[in-house]
Design a protein that fits this description.
Pfam families: Fer4_20, Pyr_redox_2. Helices cover 33% and strands 16% of the residues. The protein is built from 16 helices and 17 strands. Strand 9, helix 15 and strand 10 form a beta-alpha-beta unit. It binds flavin-adenine dinucleotide (FAD) and iron/sulfur cluster.
Length: 470
């Protein structure tokens, strides 16, 4: 990687701070689920893109930072020059969901961490915010000018994509663009996976997923919601129904949360159940989540240190909790949550307790009453303390649940198949059946899931084209 002093932005004054992003004031945030970060206007995006050094030859942000290898320096250049629509088209070629990634990518662990402008004295370029601006621009432009991509289905082969989270969406779109007929199946009535039911609307408005859904249907996608693949239909059924290939993108198996005494009490919930109930209208949920929503109460304890934990804590405040405390087993510097998520949570009133683990949940009448915690004391002490709790949300991530193995045998999908998955290529032991390469261990981020879905689409297309895949 080198700086190109001839045509880069390496000369002249460059502000060391990012162009600030507008945010809703805290009081307004807590009164609704409106999006908190309001994004850049064109002038902001141009000014911020102009901070980019336009590194030539393998810019670190795109090679080491972005799992999609998005040509960041190229679209930064165009954006800085005001050629924002061209920049947007380029960003979109690499990423089917730039508007989503610009909002949810933990950029301080990905592209912005790799940006060489980032140092003690200077902030990295706000790559995520610019990508979000470009993604929104393109969608608005298409909607205003009726420039939706027309259906290109011309192949006779049909592909079933099982699971329509970011991996399935990316795979389905890539196959549709290659001309295959694609049907997406999902247990939930709507597409989006964790984007729709795990990431709250104040971070990712549902309207962005609705417009992606419309875009894919326009491209020719058929969608069959409320279908539990493996039960009805089985993968065997899908092959019998005439699908030439099946791509499994059902997300990660649930993280194995540590056994805490009392975890089965009323009032103790998992992050996905809690967020699914809080964020998604009842009619858009699968039957098992259609029961009346649980009473939240005043005191909410969230256990975990990931983005999921921040999402839960901030959601609880919006649902009216009086006090929300996030308990994390490590030091603040070890949290997986993006720094900006932690800042927003604190601003909104979330309290943090570090280096503590839950020992047991105490109850009254079968409902959780308090959490007993042990302080992790490197000196060997065993101090315990209690926090009152009307609701406890278990938001330990896959990373927190250490020891969850990357299983090579995935047998949950169909009782008639014991699918061996090659985690590198995504091929399985059954011809024509492929699994998201991350199916066993789970994608840690949305952008990694998109990358896995795109890789899967290439493998499926090569199989259907009769091309050997390595
Ligand atoms: C609460 C929470 C918050 C998160 N926040 C962020 C964030 O801010 N940024 C970030 O980058 N990442 C975040 N993540 C991680 C991110 O959501 C995942 O990495 C990503 O969604 C994985 O995508 P996927 O398509 O592999 O799986 P999923 O998004 O889980 O999608 C899988 C889909 O398969 C469906 N499915 C499952 N089983 C079946 C079946 N048997 N039949 C039919 N359909 C089935 C599911 O209903 C779902 O729609 C978060 C995760 C959680 C849990
Ligand atoms: S997709 Fe995510 S990691 Fe890649 S450039 Fe965009 S914000 Fe950064």
């Amino acid at each position: 990687m080198r700086l190109d002093s001839n045509d880069g932005n390496s000369g002249g004054f460059r502000p060391s701070r990012q162009v600030p992003v507008r945010e809703l004031p805290v009081v307004a945030r807590l009164k609704s689920v409106a999006e908190v970060t309001l994004g850049y206007e064109k002038a902001d995006a141009m000014a911020e893109a102009s901070r980019c050094l336009l590194c030539a030859d393998e810019p670190a942000c795109q090679v080491a930072g972005c799992p999609l290898g998005s040509p960041i320096a190229d679209w930064m250049r165009l954006c800085g020059e005001g050629r924002v629509l061209e920049a947007a088209l380029l960003a979109r070629q690499a990423n089917p969901l730039p508007d989503v990634c610009g909002r949810v990518c933990p950029v301080d662990r990905l592209c912005e961490r790799a940006c060489i402008l980032g140092s003690a004295a200077s902030e990295p370029v706000a790559i995520g915010e610019i990508e979000r601006f470009l993604g929104d621009l393109l969608s608005d432009h298409a909607a205003r000018n009726g420039h939706e991509t027309p259906c290109r289905v011309h192949r006779r082969e049909r592909v079933a994509v099982a699971g329509m989270g970011p991996a399935g969406l990316a795979c389905a779109e890539a196959l549709l663009l290659r001309g295959f007929a694609v049907t997406g199946f999902d247990r939930w009535p709507r597409m989006g996976g964790l984007l729709r039911y795990g990431i709250p609307p104040f971070k990712l408005p549902a309207s962005i997923l609705d417009r992606k859904e419309a875009e894919l249907r326009n491209l020719g996608l058929e969608f069959s919601g409320g279908r539990h693949v493996g039960a009805e239909p089985t993968i065997w059924n899908l092959l019998e129904f005439g699908y030439s290939a099946v791509f499994i993108a059902m997300g990660a198996p649930p993280a194995e949360t540590r056994t805490v005494a009392g975890a089965g009490l009323a009032g103790v919930q998992t992050a996905t159940a809690f967020l699914g109930q809080a964020n998604v209208p009842r009619t858009d949920r699968p039957p098992e989540l259609q029961q009346p929503d649980e009473e939240l109460g005043q005191d909410v304890i969230v256990i975990g240190g990931s983005d999921a934990a921040m999402n839960c804590a901030r959601t609880a405040l919006r649902l009216g909790a009086r006090r929300v405390i996030c308990v994390y087993e490590g030091a603040e510097s070890h949290m997986q949550a993006a720094a900006c998520e932690v800042r927003l949570a604190r601003e909104e009133g979330v309290e943090m307790v570090f280096e503590a683990v839950p020992l047991r949940f105490h109850e009254a009448g079968g409902r959780v009453l308090s959490v007993e915690l042990k302080r992790i004391d490197t000196a060997g002490g065993t101090a315990t303390f209690r926090l009152p709790a009307d609701t406890v949300v278990l938001a330990m991530s896959h990373d927190d649940a250490r020891g969850t193995p990357a299983r090579e045998k995935v047998s949950v999908y169909d009782p008639r198949f014991d699918l061996e998955v090659d985690l590198g290529s995504g091929r399985t032991s059954v011809a024509g059946v492929f699994a998201c390469p991350d199916a066993a261990s789970g994608s840690r981020t949305v952008v990694a899931a998109i990358a896995a879905g795109l890789r899967g689409a290439r493998t499926v297309a090569a199989y259907l084209d009769g091309v050997a895949v390595g």
